[in-house]
Amino acid sequence: MINKYLASIRMGFKDMIVYRFHLYMSLITAPLSLLIYYYLWKSIYSYAGQAIINGFTFNALITYYAINTIIGWFVYSEVDAWFEQNIINGELIADLLIPVNLFSHYFLVHRGYSIFGLMVETIPFLFIAKLVFNIPIPGFWILMAFILALFFAVVLEFMISYIVGLTAFWLKRITGIRKARRTIVLFLAGGMLPLSFFPQWFQDISFFLPFKYIRDAVVNIWLGNYEIIGMLQIYLLQILWIGVLGYIIYLMWKRASKRFSGAGT
């Protein structure tokens, strides 16, 4: 049984070996982006004349962007694009014949991407960020807490992408929806700016949405901004949203599979 799942992971890993060029390029673009943020926010902090802005010191904010970049590599999902392409090209049947359910197969292929990215992107970038920008590395237990929250974040992002992908059974072409999904999730998750920089009403709403628990909350665990109770609350809300999104996927898949077998699309 486990060999079937490992085969899906190996498939993703091999794909990344073939298309590894863009991963190498990220080792150039990611530090450059962090450098831009560094000087941009250095100017803002100097102009404001404050050591802390919206709960962040300058070093903490740079760390936020660095760890956010790493999280982005892990949670990245294009499963919605797979659905669109495979339904239009008629290749979804081949994926359905794999001896692993479709959700697990696609999820594990992405984890193959993550394993390769860990070696090629994450570790080198973290080394550069530590060496050049003095990004702090948390202690063992905080790091373990971060990794657990990151895993749940990966599942959440994948599920959101999966739900968008399932709409291709009805809409066929979902390129616009996919692009909107990436932008909206990135913004609401704190991928562009920490959520503490937004008005209080926005933060209150974010607490009840799944997006915060994909990036912002996970970065703040790395920064040590949560006590044990706070971290447990984050895990609970992540698991709760995984359950909600999982149920939505279950309902959509029941209808989508009937439509697929009935219409042959």
Structure explained in plain terms:
By secondary structure, the protein is mainly alpha-helical. The chain has one domain. The protein is 78% helix and 2% strand. The chain contains twelve helices and two strands; from the N terminus they run H-H-E-E-H-H-H-H-H-H-H-H-H-H. Strands 1-2 form a two-stranded antiparallel ribbon. Helix 7 runs parallel beside helix 12. The longest helix has 36 residues. The protein is globular and about 60 Å long. The two termini are 30 Å apart.
> Count of helices?
12
Spatial extent as radius of gyration: 20 Å
What is the averaged pLDDT score? 87
H/E element sequence: HHEEHHHHHHHHHH
Instruction: Specify the structural class.
Output: mainly alpha
* Principal-axes shape call: globular
Oligomeric state of shown chains: single chain
Low confidence ranges: none
Strand content: under 5%
How many β-strand runs? 2
Cα distance spanning the termini: 30 Å
The helix content, as a percent range, equals: over 70%
Give the total of domains.
1
